[in-house]
């Protein structure tokens, strides 16, 4: 017996077999079940591809739903059984190694798309059938008219043998004759129908134009009209029909009778209503889904001036942990319980709750005092989540973060409102969760700006939008310029010059920090070569360039080789480069992380420990770090800007300098802004300093001028 695992085609065949067994009994087809299974196989293959595609395409699911109609699977049970089969087995047999949560979400969206495609195809088929019936009705009109004039026998054959309901009335609305099909539709006797005047057959859902068209017809102003109309049966139930009413004239052309042709569409309408419900409601919780919520929100936003709305956007805190630890079945039961609680919170007129997907829910209120109502609604939701949820013998604590948006309905789109609520919800989550926050236009603008900068980053480097400014490093003993720190800037087309605090965290998050950092090093090392060519090796030594390394760059496997290549291409010795690493990046660093820094230090590249004193590191840990420079954080020297200096700061700096020098480390101080600071730091034994007291960051020519002035001074 073979022990090879089933291949993708085998699993696809198994899914198709299950599908055909479920749907074949309710399908009107002349095919055998194996032949029907072969007809379903391409549809299963399309669903499998759509499930695993890089980008989700709802059109694939819609096409499969429409294809079911083409395969004569028109019964409501065929759709429901197909959706049950896809829900239960598509991810199981076609998911392979994908993310189960993402695959289940895609499967649910494919099911919604299948239902929409099924409904659309069924509607198109229905319209085609209706047109055929209308044509048959017109032909029947001619046949009936001729039969009335030619032969009562021929008329009776057509009248009684027709599959659609036929009734004849005079121009005053008195019913003269009805056929058997019409009697069966109404479920009453002929006498019951004939005693009622046509004008009495009104229904609450009649369109306004129905009776206007009727009056035009009996006056002879039109020959026929076609409408959808409901009738009350004798037992009180409702009969929905496609109704065609035609005018019959006498041989002289004068209006004489009206002929009604009726097709019973009650079951079809119920099916359409069911499909509409399934397409607009969440299959798991029964709540309105994203589609219906957007319809309601857009309706509320178009309600006119003077109206207001309020929206709560809820995301459960830690829901992924529950799914990962207890399984998706437990997660689904939790979502159902949360949905029930939310539904109980939104019972006032103008309130609704919907599930957008995953663990995201929204609540909408459209009352006159929306500000007070939405605050109250958010508080009710938070209170509803307080009680633990019991699942499989465990009590699960439910927490949630809510973003609240409230305001006038005019001037805002549904997408903008939901985006603001989403941003606000994540602000609540970042503040610790289990709370709700009100939308803030300024916070929204900052978040949108961050997103815009993130999306613009990848092409900004290619477009040459980055440039470097240099801040000199000055020796505290003789005041000579010993080098500079390279500080990257972004000349953004819309926002102007942006400092590194605006985009470096975004670059680290996206991974662009690696190519950006490589570019900064290339430009800085090339600049260091130009400075050395201009100044040579003076008494103070050659100028050195300091370049910052991010934590992402530290872990990049190409760091050492990139650095070597850059130095060799520029023709610069390694001692021209100093790489600055923040103290926090090296807290708890193991040998694997330190290995590239040790290799660079062995080559002659200086390593500086930046922001020293802010990372809560163990001072004894300095002995194993391959650093040659400590950069003391500016927070230790702020107390030295005025005289007398803060004695505590003096003691701390004095101790750090003594420790550094005992370990053969140079000390650089950042943020020097006054002469008093510089003098005090010189007395304490610090080696070099940088800050606005000496120069602000500027173009490379500025450093050349400072170095030249120092050499000639």
Q: Features of this protein?
A:
single chain; 713 residues; alpha/beta; 8-stranded mixed barrel; 5-stranded antiparallel beta sheet; 24 helices
Biggest beta-sheet profile: 8 strands, mixed, barrel
* Apparent shape: elongated
On the 0 to 100 scale, the average pLDDT is: 83
Q: Which sequence of strands runs across the widest sheet?
A: 13-14-16-17-18-19-20-21
Count of DSSP strands:
21
- Find the structural class using helix and strand composition: alpha/beta
Number of helices: 24
List unreliable stretches of 5+ residues: none
Residue share in helix? 40-55%
**What is the CA-based Rg, rounded?**
39 Å
Structure description:
By secondary structure, the protein is of the alpha/beta class. It is 50% helix and 19% strand. The strands form four sheets. The chain has an eight-stranded mixed β-barrel with strand order 13-14-16-17-18-19-20-21, surrounded by four helices. Strands 2-1-5-4-3 form a five-stranded antiparallel β-sheet, with helices on both faces. Strands 7-8-6-11-12 form a five-stranded mixed β-sheet, sandwiched between helices. Helix 18 packs parallel to helix 24. The longest helix has 51 residues.
Topology (SSEs and partners):
Elements lengths: L7 H16 L9 H20 L5 H13 L5 H19 L5 H51 L1 H10 L3 E6 L4 E4 L1 H7 L3 H5 L14 H10 L5 E9 L5 E12 L5 E10 L1 H15 L9 H12 L6 E9 L2 H8 L1 H18 L5 E7 L2 E6 L4 H15 L4 E3 L2 E3 L3 E9 L5 H17 L4 E4 L2 H20 L5 E10 L5 E12 L3 E3 L1 H11 L2 H23 L8 E6 L1 H4 L4 H12 L6 E6 L8 H13 L2 E7 L16 E4 L14 H16 L3 E4 L5 H10 L3 E2 L10 H13 L1
Parallel strand pairs: 11-12, 14-16, 16-17, 17-18, 18-19, 19-20, 20-21
Antiparallel strand pairs: 1-2, 1-5, 3-4, 4-5, 6-8, 6-11, 7-8, 9-10, 13-14, 13-21, 14-15
Helix pairs in contact: 1-2, 1-4, 2-3, 2-5, 3-5, 4-5, 5-6, 5-10, 12-13, 13-14, 16-17, 18-20, 18-24
């Amino acid at each position: 017996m073979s022990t090879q695992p089933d291949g993708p085609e085998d699993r696809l065949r198994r899914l198709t077999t299950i599908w055909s067994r479920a749907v074949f009994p309710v399908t009107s087809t002349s095919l055998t079940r194996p032949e029907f299974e072969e007809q379903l196989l391409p549809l299963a293959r399309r669903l499998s591809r759509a499930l695993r595609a890089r980008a989700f395409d709802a059109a694939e699911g819609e096409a499969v739903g429409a294809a079911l109609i083409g395969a004569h699977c028109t019964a409501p049970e065929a759709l429901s059984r197909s959706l049950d089969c896809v829900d239960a087995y598509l991810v199981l047999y076609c998911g392979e190694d994908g993310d189960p949560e993402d695959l289940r979400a895609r499967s649910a969206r494919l099911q919604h798309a299948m239902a929409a495609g099924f409904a659309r195809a069924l509607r198109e088929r229905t319209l085609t059938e209706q047109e055929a019936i209308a044509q048959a009705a017109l032909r029947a009109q001619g046949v009936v008219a001729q039969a009335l004039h030619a032969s009562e026998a021929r008329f009776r054959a057509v009248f009684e043998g027709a599959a659609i309901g036929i009734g004849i009335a005079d121009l005053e609305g008195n019913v003269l004759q009805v056929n058997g099909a019409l009697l069966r539709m109404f479920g009453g006797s002929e006498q019951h129908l004939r005693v009622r005047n046509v004008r009495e057959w009104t229904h609450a859902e009649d369109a306004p134009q129905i009776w206007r068209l009727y009056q035009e017809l009996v006056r002879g102003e039109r020959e026929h009209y076609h409408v959808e109309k409901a009738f009350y049966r004798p037992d009180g139930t409702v009969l929905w029909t496609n109704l065609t009413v035609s005018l019959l004239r006498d041989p002289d052309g004068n209006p004489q009778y009206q002929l009604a042709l009726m097709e019973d569409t009650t079951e079809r309408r119920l099916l359409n209503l069911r499909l509409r419900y399934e397409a607009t409601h969440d299959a798991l919780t029964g709540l309105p889904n994203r589609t219906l919520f957007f319809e309601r929100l857009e309706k509320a936003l178009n309600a006119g001036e003077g109206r207001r709305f309020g929206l709560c956007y809820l995301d459960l805190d830690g829901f992924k942990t529950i799914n990962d630890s207890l399984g998706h079945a437990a997660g689904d039961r939790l979502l159902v319980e949360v949905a029930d609680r939310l539904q109980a919170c939104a019972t006032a007129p103008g309130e609704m709750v919907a599930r957008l997907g995953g663990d995201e829910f929204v609540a909408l209120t459209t009352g006159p005092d929306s500000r007070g109502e939405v605050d109250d609604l958010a508080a009710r939701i938070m209170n509803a989540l307080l009680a633990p949820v019991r699942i499989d013998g465990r009590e699960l604590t439910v927490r949630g973060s809510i973003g609240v948006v409230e305001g006038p309905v005019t001037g805002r789109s549904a997408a903008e409102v939901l985006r603001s609520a989403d941003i606000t919800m994540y602000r609540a989550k970042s503040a610790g969760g289990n709370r709700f926050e009100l939308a803030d236009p300024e916070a929204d603008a900052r978040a949108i700006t961050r997103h815009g900068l993130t999306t613009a980053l990848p092409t900004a480097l290619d477009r040459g939008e980055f440039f470097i400014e240099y801040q000199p490093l000055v020796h505290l003993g003789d005041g000579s310029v010993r080098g500079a720190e390279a500080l990257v800037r972004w000349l953004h087309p819309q926002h102007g010059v942006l400092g590194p605090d605006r985009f470096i965290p975004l670059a680290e998050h996206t991974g662009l920090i690696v190519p950006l950092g490589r570019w900064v090093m290339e430009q800085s090392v090339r600049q260091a070569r130009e400075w050395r060519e201009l100044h040579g090796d003076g008494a103070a030594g050659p100028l050195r360039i300091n370049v910052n390394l991010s934590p992402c760059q530290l872990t990049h496997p190409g760091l050492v080789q990139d650095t070597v290549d850059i130095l060799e291409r520029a023709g610069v010795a390694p001692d021209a480069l100093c790489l600055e690493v923040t103290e926090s990046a090296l807290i708890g660093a193991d040998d694997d992380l330190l290995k590239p820094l040790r290799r660079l230090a062995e080559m002659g590249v200086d390593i500086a420990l930046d922001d020293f004193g802010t990372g809560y590191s163990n001072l004894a840990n300095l002995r194993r770090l391959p650093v040659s420079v400590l950069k003391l954080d500016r927070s230790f020297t702020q107390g030295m800007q005025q005289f007398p200096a803060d004695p505590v700061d003096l003691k701390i700096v004095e101790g750090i300098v003594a420790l550094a020098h005992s370990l053969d480390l140079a000390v650089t101080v950042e943020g020097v802004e006054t002469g008093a600071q510089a003098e005090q730091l010189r007395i304490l034994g610090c080696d070099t300093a940088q800050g606005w007291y000496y120069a602000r960051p500027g173009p490379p020519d500025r450093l050349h001028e400072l170095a030249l002035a120092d050499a000639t001074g």
